[in-house]
Amino acid sequence: MSAVTETHDRTGEKRTAAPAPGNTARLLRRWWPAAALLILAVAPYSALPLPGLLDGPLGSPGSLQLLATCLLFGALATGYDLLLGRTGLLSFGHALYFAAGSYATNMFLLEAGLPFAVSALLGLCFGIALALVLGSVSLRVTGIGFSMVTLAFAQAGSILVSRNPGGFTGGEEGRAAPADLLPSGLVGIEHTANLYWVALAYLVLTLAVVHWVVRSPTGRVWEGIKENERRVEVLGLKPYGFKLTAFVLAGALAALGGLVHLLLTGGSTPQTTTSDFTLSLLVMVVLGGSGTRWGPMVGGILYTWADHRLGDLAGSGAVADLPAVLRVPLSQPLFLLGVLFVAVVHLLPGGLARLPSRLAAVRRGPATETLPSGKARKENGRP
Question: Which residues contact 294 (CB under 8 A, 6 or more apart)?
Fold first, then answer.
């Protein structure tokens, strides 16, 4: 149906009526991702100042570096939600595959002297193989047992990196990749825009893969496993294979993110191997809205931005001049992040992705509220 309608006046002349509000809303919902992508793509060419959000103009190297990091973790949280929000698997070891992609690529560069493209491909294959091996073991148990096994593997990987076996990992200092071993167009402040576009491409690729696979028959089986795994078994399907597919795909996307992180930071850091790193991903997903299309991405971007900006706020002179009762808590970035997380969880159950539907429900009154799955329920909680 067309968004506009034609009417006739008394003289018989045709007149075009304005688009209906409902059609306009549908058009906005359909095309806003393309508009957002276009804005993000041209951001490096902009000198727009955003006081409070960024330290400098939008296209400055410092701002682009922060935005690239936000996009990277938005994509990483989206990939992690394949396990948590789509299949119902709570993994505490997802950071291991992110670190595997970074460290493996770095070692192929430094130890084998291979070109970056070959090293990146081998690093990605190593991350996928590691996810396949550890996933096949971890998925032999379910529930909290699965979470504990993934946590054990992550802790083992973190300890291995910190022990620096053979000098391959650099221990607690990490290991930098020499600039002459990385692509020349991705090294240096003058090429920050290129790094930003690499992070944006990773985000677009992750969103496209997740959207495609969730809408596939495999994605529908994942939804059934999350709701009731026993029922999937009764239907004659074997959940183990489908869960392993989700585990390996999420691990592959994380390993690819490790490659992007290696380019952004110029090296591999042991902080990416810890269970705290995976817990941060969990917070991002819950903050944005687990199991939704855009929620994990929004949560990852917001959390990463807040982590950087609140750290600057905590060390600013404005906080230092406050009384001790305010200065002490406000000087702790983790405290500020915790307050933000608790506020969002309390005020917006289901994450930030539920905000549009809640605002629409407020405008409609106490009638119905649309859930992310497309179903509706009464505001009093009754179906």
Answer: 288, 353
6 has pLDDT over 70:
no
3-state SS class at 374: coil
For the segment 330-338, the average pLDDT, to the nearest whole number, is: 72
* Beta-carbon contacts of residue 140 (< 8 Å; ≥ 6 apart): none
pTM of this structure: 0.84
Core vs surface per residue 129-161: b (16+ CB within 10 A) or e:
bbbeebbeebbeeeeeebbebbbebbbebbeeb
Neighbours of 232 (CB within 10 A): 19
Residues 6+ apart with CB under 8 A from 157: 93, 96, 99, 100, 273
Which residue, 122, 93, 82, is CA-closest to 273?
A: 93
- Per residue in 98-126, pLDDT (tens digit) is 999 999 999 999 888 899 999 999 999 99
